[in-house]
């Protein structure tokens, strides 16, 4: 849970504010139940403080709810929605909206090669690389490396924001 909360914190919160142009979509695909997605929308997020306990409380609250059908996001609170589905569902939805998926991988290309004229969705896995089942929907995926070490997700997010903000 702490890993998820740190990712949300790094992606959305800045000193005394929220990044309105950022979203976080958590994929919960372990355990015995159906896959679930939790979407934190920075443009409408409210009532969440930038600490792990507050963010974890929101996630725990969602986990008590029934999983909505795949592809149908149900509002949980201001700027937080959840839906059934997995990474392949998200990739399909991004494709329909013109969002270019970028997979973070230590073997990927350099950030300077990224065409910044597009809207991106960055895919960050946990402690293992994504497998073929996770990425079967990707067409000509862009793979990006932030270095040869496997970093924690929240660190990758902070580095990406730094690089994107500088451009």
Describe this structure in words.
- The chain has 2 domains: 1-85, Alpha/beta knot (3-Layer(aba) Sandwich); 86-167, SPOUT methyltransferase, trefoil knot domain (Alpha/beta knot, 3-Layer(aba) Sandwich).
- It has 5 helices and 9 strands, in the order αββββαββαββαβα.
- The chain has helices at 2-12, 52-63, 87-97, 132-135, 153-166; strands at residues 13-14, 17-18, 23-28, 36-41, 74-77, 80-84, 99-109, 119-123, 142-144.
- The protein has a 4-stranded antiparallel β-sheet with strand order 3-4-6-5.
- Helix 1 (2-12) packs across helix 2.
- The termini are far apart.
Low-pLDDT windows of residues: none
Query: What is the SS-derived class?
Result: alpha/beta
Number of helices: 5
Order of helices and strands: HEEEEHEEHEEHEH
Number of strands: 9
Looking at CATH, which topology of the largest domain would you report?
A: Alpha/beta knot
CATH architecture of the largest domain: 3-Layer(aba) Sandwich
At the fourth level of CATH, the homologous superfamily of the largest domain is SPOUT methyltransferase, trefoil knot domain
Q: Strand arrangement, largest sheet?
A: 3-4-6-5
Top CATH class of the largest domain? Alpha Beta
């Amino acid at each position: 849970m702490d890993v998820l909360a740190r990712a949300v914190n790094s992606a959305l919160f800045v000193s005394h504010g929220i990044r309105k142009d950022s979203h976080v979509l958590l994929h919960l695909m372990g355990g015995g139940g159906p896959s679930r997605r939790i979407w934190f929308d920075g443009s409408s997020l409210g009532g969440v403080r930038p600490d792990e306990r507050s963010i974890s409380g929101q996630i725990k609250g969602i986990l008590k709810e029934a999983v909505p059908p795949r592809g149908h996001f149900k509002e949980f609170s201001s700027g937080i929605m959840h839906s059934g589905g997995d990474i392949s569902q998200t990739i399909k939805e991004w494709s329909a909206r013109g969002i270019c998926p970028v997979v973070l991988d230590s073997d990927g290309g350099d950030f300077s090669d990224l065409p910044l004229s597009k809207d991106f969705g960055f895919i960050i896995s946990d402690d293992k690389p994504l497998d073929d089942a996770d990425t079967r929907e990707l067409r000509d995926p862009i793979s990006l490396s932030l270095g040869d070490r496997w970093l924690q997700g929240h660190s990758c997010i902070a580095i990406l924001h730094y690089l994107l903000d500088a451009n």
